[in-house]
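Field guide to reading this record: the first block holds the primary sequence, the second block holds the structure written as discrete tokens, and the final block holds curator observations. Each block starts with its own label. This record concerns Putative flavoprotein involved in K+ transport, catalogued under organism Paraburkholderia bryophila.

BLOCK 1 — SEQUENCE
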Amino acid sequence: MSNRNHPARAEGHYSVLVVGGGQAGLSVSYFLKQAGIDHLVVEKNTVTHTWREQRWDAFCLVTPNWQCALPGYPYRGDDPHGFMKKDEILAYLDGFIAHVDAPVVERAEVKRVKRRDDGVYTVATTQGEFTADQFVVASGGYHTPIVPRLAERLPARIVQMQSSAYRNPQALPDGAVMVVGTGQSGAQIAEDLHLAGRKVVLAVGEAPRCARFYRGRDVVDWLSDMQYYDMPVEQHPLREGVRDNTNHYVTGRDGGRDIDLRKFAAEGMALYGRLDDLRNGQLHFAPTLAANLDAADDVYNRINASIDGFIAKHGIDAPAGDPYEPVWRPLEERATLDVETSGIAAIIWCIGFTPDFSWLDAPVFNGRGYPAHTRGITPIDGLYFVGLPWLHTWGSGRFSGVARDAEYIVQTIREKLRERETLSAAVAA
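BLOCK 2 — STRUCTURE
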């Protein structure tokens, strides 16, 4: 994949420079090409690198294939309600890459971006220096893995890795595996290990969950009909706060199903509350397990109840549905676990990432490193973001919604360019 689209002109000036060669950056390139706007996509690794190098072997989509709607390249397979596996996802992305044929410089890490007094952006990379009239950040928001400092004090014999480095159960040493965190990655990795017969110790976080199927259909299909995926962030009950939410855990594995941590516990998985500390060889956990399981189930049932309301309101003929009832409850909150006697041989940290835009010299970031913007348009003239979670809607960081965001950004870019052309013509006259 390396340098497959390396342009004849590398260093130099462009109307638009895009940082990030994932689905967001390539989507922006698609619309820029349609508009006839010269541009360059700069990618630190290779295009769609994250999908190729940071997904485990059994990875599959958690949303149905019909939601794969990259610009000009919708899903055309024969299983729209299925869930593409890793190799199928990569084939879909390869087709999209060829379809866009973006002007890309790969293996070009951006070191510094600054806007000059004349409004031009200067971009220093490991492959040279560029300038651009407008600048689009499409590098996502998952940059630096979160690993707690207590990890430094664990015995050296324990293999530690972040979720992006996990591949399969066979690659881990014999013994128990501790998974910390139960967002989408943590819950699915814990399931992958559990299905392989590994002893799993799971530190359960506050992530919500949802049903895979309810009342005869995929929950995603119901929510789409309810127009949830079209809801802009400013209309969400949490407003911008929804951007901090952990994704609901569910899976598309084996045709799709719920992930029920209580069922795993009944089958032998050891569930604990939030991991808090390591002292004197003992892992310490907060007494949050029961509350976290109950809260996840409450979200599950609330989503289903909203579907019930939609069905009733519209008189839809659908099979009956019942609220989820727990199949297992913890008898007690286990507060500690001895590292040596537990048999833990590996720990997988699945507690997320923090953004790192330290290379971008622009006064648009809040205290958590997140940019201020309205639908990707920042207060700084000519500076845009795309591909972030809930940039505009639920699908902004996904295959389903990034096209809408990219098109909107490019429309804004076109308007800026026209304004400048008009101003330049007026000055020349």
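BLOCK 3 — OBSERVATIONS
The chain has two domains: 12-143+355-428, 145-349.
The chain has a mean pLDDT of 93.
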